[in-house]
Amino acid sequence: MKIRRTGERLWVTNNAPELDWNQSRRYENTSPNVLLMLTSDQRHMLNSSAVFVVAFTAISACDTAFLQDVETRREATDRGCPAPNDGANDIAASVESGVGLTLTWTTNATNADSFVIERQSSREPTWGEIGVATALTFTDTRVLPNEQYRYRISALREAGGSTCATPASEPVVVRTVPAVADAFTARGTAVGAIRLEWDDPNLFEDGYRLTRNDGAGNVTVLGELAANSTALADSGVTPGMIYTYTLVAFNASGDGAAASTSQRAVTPASLSWTTPPVIGPQCTLEVYGSATYDSGASFASSIGIINGTETPGTPTGFTGAIAPTTSGAVLTEWTVDDTAGGRASLSRTLEIVQTPTSRTRRRIAAPNELAGEGFQALQPTCADCGTTPPASISAAVDYTCQVKNNGRVACWGSNSTNQLGHGDVTQSYVAVRPCALDGSGVCAGAPLELANVDAREDTACGITSEGRAVCWGSAGSYEMLGRSDITESFAAVPICPNGDCSALSGVTQIAVGNSAVCAVAAGNQVWCWGRDVFTLSTQSPQPVCESGTYPGCTVFTADQVDVGDDVACARRGGNVWCWGQNNNAIFGTDAVAESKYPRPVCVSGTGPGCTRLADTTDLKLGDDFACARKSAGTLVCWGSNGSGQLGTGSMAGN
What share of the chain is helix, strand, coil (3-state, %, to 5)? Predict the structure, then answer.
C-alpha cells in the first residue's frame, strides 16, 4: 500500500503490481495534520511537503477502518478496534510558580487508554504534541512568562495492535503569569518624594502592584496600577530614610516575578544663580549657578533650557545659542541631577535689550532674585555676532580680535593692558567692541570699524576704512602705539609720524610683533615703529630703508610684511626679505648675525648671487621662524625648530 499526502489531500493506493494510481481511492483531510496509526509503536505525521511510502506487511481491521474514515477519525465499531467512546471534557488550567502549567480534565470514556496533549502559542503557531498522559492531569513544565498558550486533548485506545483516537477537544486558552518589569529604578525628585520608573515588557498583565518597605517592618501597598503603567511618584517618604520598593505584575493566572530597588529619600540639590549671565562669542548665552547637595550626593548631570530649547549643562550652569537679533524676555531653566537620585530645577526670565549700536546693556528683569527672577546683568554685547565668517581674525596669547565683513571689530579674552580696546572690563568672555577714535576715558561715539586687524602680545592694531593705522593696548617699553606720551590706551590711537597723521596713509596691511609694528603703506612703502629690530632701540614711525639712512634713503617696498621677535620679513615679487636679528638663521643663512637693511632669504648660497626663495604668495612669522606659501599651494618653513614647528619630522634647525 502507498500513502501520499499532497496539499490537503491524502492518497492511498494498494501496492499490488496489478493496480496503478488510477485505481487509488482519494480521501479528503480537513485537519492540518494527519496522524496515521500504523502499529502500536509507530506514528507518522504527514505534512504538506512530504511524500511517504509505507509498505504494510499486515493490515488490521483498525487500520482499514482508519483509512476509510480519515476525515473524522471516529471509531469503527464493526472492525474490532473501537475509538474511545468519549474525549476530554471540562479542561481547566492552573499556573504553579516554579512548577509550570497544569491541565486537568474529565472524560466519560470507559475505554480510553491515554490522552495526547497538543499546544500552540505565539512563538509556536503550529500545533505540536507535547506529551501523553494516562491520568486526567498533565503538567507542562516548558512554559514562559508573559505568554498565551492554547491546548487541546485527544483520547486514545489501543487494541489489536492498532491505536484509534477521538477528535481533538476544543482548545482551551491559558495565559501564564507576567514577566518581571525591566529597568526598575527610583530617584528622589523633591523633598519627601521618590519617583519610581520601569519598562513594561508584558502583553498579558492585568496590572502592577507596588509595595514599599521602610526597613523597620512597615510594608505599605502603594497601589495596584493599571496594565502598561510605567511610573509612580511616592510622596510619603521621609528625607534621610532608605526605602525598598517591590514591583509585581499580575493577571488571572497569578503574580509574576518581583523586581525590587532601594532608594534613600533625599533632598535634591539647592540651586542658586551666581555670576550674572553674559552673552559670549558667537551669540551664546552663558548662565551661571551653583548647587549644594544633600549629604552623600554629588553632581551627576544637568541640562539648561533657553526658551524651550534644551542645551547641555555643567555643574555651574549652561551655555546655549541665541539669535543675534534676540531681544525681550528669554525664559531660562537649569535642571541638575545628583548621584543620590535627586533632581532640582531653577528658572528665571532674562531681559535682553539691544541698543542701536548692537550692544546689550544691563537690565533689571525682576525685583526678587531669591524668587528666581532677579536682576540679570548682561555684559556688553556679542558685537554683531552672527554666523557670517570674519573678514580678518587674529589670536594673541590670551585674547582674540576679529573684523566682520561689515567692518565691525570685536575682541574677547584678557584685558589686562586694555588690549580689548574697551575700558570698563578686566576680561571678557564676551566679544566686546573696541572704542572709537574719539574715546577719552570712556567709550564714546560709534564703535570702531576697521578693514583689518592684527594682535600680538598686549597690543592690537588695525587699518581704518580711510587707510590709516591705529593701535590700542600696551605700548610696552618701545612706543608700539606710535607715541612717546602714551604707554597704554583702551581707545584706538592713530599712528601719526611726528604728529603728522597724513604722513602714514594708504595703509593696506599691518603686522604686530612682540615689540614692534610694521605696515605696508601708500606706494607699497614699508613703515615700522616700536623697537628698532636692528638697533634694538626705540623708534618712532618711519620707513624702512633699503639703502642709505632716513630721511633721504631708498625706501624699501613690499607686498606684505610680518614681524617676529626682533626680526621682520617682507614679501616682494615672490621673494622674501628679512632684516633685524638673524636668530636661528631666520634669514635663511647663518652667514650674518644681523642686518639693518632687508636682505633676500636664500635657499642655497649666500649674498646677492644666492638662489633666492621665490614664487611665494603669503608669509607669516613666529618669534624666530617663518613660513611662506608658494603659488602651487606648498608650504616652506625655516628658522628655529625647537618644537618641531618647521614640520620636517625632526627638531633640527634649518
Answer: 5, 50, 50
